[in-house]
Amino acid sequence: MTPLSIFDMDRTITRSGTWSPWLLFWAAREAPWRLALLPVAAVFGAAYLAKRVSRARLKELNQRLLMGDAVPRARVEAAARAFTARLLDRGVFPDALLRLEAERAAGRRVVLATASCEFYVRAIADALGVADVVATRSVWDGDVLRARLAGPNCYGQAKRDMVEAWLAAEGLTGAPIRFFSDHVSDVPMFELADEQVVTTPTPKLRAVAQARGWPIIDWV
Question: How big is the CA angle at 66 (ends 24 and 155), to the nearest 5 degrees?
Answer without folding.
Answer: 80
